[in-house]
Write a structure and sequence with these properties.
The complex is a heterodimer. Chain A has strands at residues 2-7, 10-14, 19-27, 32-38, 44-50, 56-58, 64-68, 73-78, 87-94, 103-104, 108-113. By secondary structure, chain A is an all-beta fold. The N and C termini of chain A lie far apart (41 Å). In chain B, 0% of the residues lie in helices and 47% in strands. In chain B, strand 5 and strand 6 (53-56) form a beta hairpin. Classes of the chains: A mainly beta, B mainly beta.
């Protein structure tokens, strides 16, 4: 079984500040991990994924995430927030190795202040 | 097509009515997924197709929910005798299929179902 916990339903940052969205997972086997972004009235868009290669994963729009097995974490970061980054962000986990059913976290709403 | 499309975008149904939600995946995508997203929650898996075969329907919440993909492209999610707890956004996603592209799921904009 797998599960995902996203700490903080809302995160507020100033434009230009560091973005840090937290995700912790639970998995009985090595996981595959994902971050998605959802803009209002749109579907989810894949930002980045970890599938057991490099532990530091770079994605689109300047985001990156680091897989830390010892901490069971996969936090999402961006050095400098833009107004356009305001959206809902979801962390997801699958068991990997051919498993295709992702378990999503509850989401974190990123608010960017000018 | 350019992306995954879903119709209708919004649907209001009276309790007890049947509804049908349509998904047009990206052309050539083998895999198709349906998810249910309740307000303030992440998406939850409903069912998965590989071409026309429904390989997993473990997430369907009751036998009132039924999905099909008869020709391996367009899919329809049908909900019979809708209940208020069915109110949610229903998301469809497609991917290239088993292999390196499997985890690259492309999502449609969703259908927001409101049962009154």
């Amino acid at each position: 079984a797998q599960s995902v916990t996203q700490l903080g339903s809302h995160v507020s940052v100033s434009e230009g500040a560091l973005v840090l969205l937290r995700c912790n997972y639970s998995s009985s086997v090595p996981p595959y991990l994902f971050w998605y972004v959802q803009y209002p009235n749109q579907g989810l868009q894949l930002l980045l994924k970890y599938t057991s290669a490099a532990t530091l994963v770079k994605g689109i729009n300047g985001f990156e995430a680091e897989f830390k097995k010892s901490e069971t974490s996969f936090h999402l970061t961006k050095p400098s927030a833009h107004m356009s980054d305001a959206a809902e962000y979801f962390c997801a986990v699958t068991l990997g190795g051919g498993s295709y059913i992702p378990t999503f976290g509850r989401g974190t709403s990123l608010i960017v202040h000018p | 097509g350019a992306g995954v499309s879903q119709s209708p975008r919004y649907k209001v149904a009276k309790r007890g009515q049947d509804v049908a939600l349509r998904c047009d995946p990206i052309s050539g995508h083998v895999s198709l997924f349906w998810y249910q997203q309740a307000l303030g929650q992440g998406p939850e898996f409903l069912t998965y197709f590989q071409n026309e075969a429904q390989l997993d329907k473990s997430g369907l919440p009751s036998d009132r929910f039924f999905a099909e993909r008869p020709e391996g492209s367009v899919s329809t999610l049908k909900i019979q005798r809708t209940q208020q707890e069915d109110s949610a956004v229903y998301l469809c996603a497609s991917s290239a299929g088993p292999g390196t592209g499997f985890y690259e799921q492309y999502f449609g904009p969703g259908t927001r179902l409101t049962v009154t």
